[in-house]
Amino acid sequence: xxxxxxxxxxxxxxVDIYDQVYHLSGQDADHIRALASRVDxxxxxxxxxxxxxxxxxxxxxxxxxxxxxxxxxxxxxxQPGHARAASLRGLLDEVLEEELKTG
Length: 103
Known about the structure:
Layout: E1 4-7, E2 12-17, E3 20-25, H1 29-49, H2 55-72, H3 82-102
Antiparallel strand pairs: 1-2, 2-3
């Protein structure tokens, strides 16, 4: 489960997603922890029902599942949420970059 490890003075929140530690920055630490928890839960659900052990593939499948949930909830117009989407894309890029570094 994604959990807060600590929030340091530089504005970073350390979370655990799918047994990997990430240092994320943002204005709302509680929101970041909630997002990390949701991503962790989705990745674990995908891994439980899938056949792959590759965490990058699990992450992509989890992202697709979350995007599908948003679409089904009616979030199809990207213009109002463009800034938020850019922020989330940045967080995802950080996570994927860290995943590639740690292999």
